[in-house]
Give the backbone structure.
Amino acid sequence: MTAIVQLVGNPVAGRHKAKRVAALARALETHGAIVHVTPCTHEPPPIAPETTHVVVAAGDGTVRHVAGAIARSGHPAALSIYPLGTINLLAREAGYPGDPAAFARMVLAGEPTRPHYPVKLDEGYFFACAGVGPDSAAVAGVSSGLKRRVGRLAYGAAMLGVLARWPRPMIALTVGERRVECEAFYVAKGRFYAGSYSFARAAGVHLPTLHVVALTRCRRRDYLRFVATLASHGDVALLPYVEVLEGPTLKAEAAEPLPLQADGDVVCALPVTMTVSETALLFC
């Protein structure tokens, strides 16, 4: 059976990335696929009924849009991610190669076998990680123009603004049957966060559960110690102000509408409820 691939890319990603998308399309065609290139900006494109594979050649934010649309529609198309974004946590976890020919061989070699349980988030989904804290406040303040020019360095610039106005809100967090009060929290669906780092080593996209770390105290020095532990690949669960929780649902409430980032973008504000989907998407 001939694979019919809908290749989704970000049309504002820049000339260099557009050339890589074109090279990927040629590689998929060389390996026998029929390829339809589709742009995606803020709204996910419709998935053609005859599509057998959807390849997202973009960052985690675009993956969230496209995979969320597939999850809502129930379309049986398999998913793959060509790493072409700022960080690409999901592509890193799957081990997708950056070489177009190697990627085409990998995703067209057989049937999709990797289940991924997305997380329902109000009216949408997320797939890798989410959280509320100083970094989500920084994501909310990132300049889109600066991000296009310097990539992940834009988040560092935004964090400088957060350092000057350090937030310490109180958040009521309920995960499964457990309830804690905290000043920041992070939710892992996959293993990675902000690159090759991990705050929940037991997490996996193939598992129908949420792994959560809650910072019951988040002063500047507490947060910097948390970040330093992550950066050194240490175990954040050993920090005295960290609570570790696990369950299929999460509810977070606060007295103010704190921004929540998911897969690299601010997607909503508290209060919020998260639930792991009972149905897995299949990735090649």
